[in-house]
Specification:
Helices cover 48% and strands 21% of the residues. With 135 residues, it is α+β, with helices and mostly antiparallel strands. It has one domain (5-129). The radius of gyration is 26 Å and the shape is rod-shaped.
Length: 135
């Protein structure tokens, strides 16, 4: 078999192209899995912070033997405290019947930084409906 001079090195270009495609695919798989884990963590932290806020009872009412209603200001403060303790950034607010928490997590990429994607940001949401002690 006689080689054609014009095709010399074409296998090297093909292997280089396939290698790059495999590396990009591997990077998408690894960083995609990390993004999924970060999203799960952001949502989990938001839900846990909302639950912690929903347990902020009015202490003076308990001392007097009254219904154990939630103090909205204390609920938001407790949810924010949980966020700080968990090392997450986010906000907590009271919307009348529930504590609503939003979290944000930013993580650096492992492989996709090589193609210009240095980090990703995910958002989590959690809410706890607060029921009165009297029903």
């Amino acid at each position: 078999m006689r080689s054609v001079r014009g095709e010399r090195g074409s296998a090297s270009v093909l292997i280089l192209g396939l290698s790059i495609a495999v590396l990009v695919g591997f990077g998408l798989a690894v960083d995609g899995a990390r993004k999924g884990q970060a999203y799960s963590q952001a949502t989990s932290i938001a839900e846990e912070a909302a639950r912690a806020g929903g347990q902020a009872l009015q202490v003076h009412a308990l001392a007097e033997g009254a219904d154990a209603d939630v103090d909205p200001g204390a609920a938001v403060a407790e949810a924010q405290r949980y966020l700080v303790t968990a090392g997450a950034t986010g906000t907590a607010r009271w919307d009348g019947v529930r504590v609503v928490v939003e979290t944000t997590i930013t993580r650096p990429t492992v492989f996709l930084g090589a193609i210009g994607v240095p980090e990703f940001t995910v958002y989590g949401h959690g809410a706890a409906v607060v029921l009165s002690g009297n029903g």
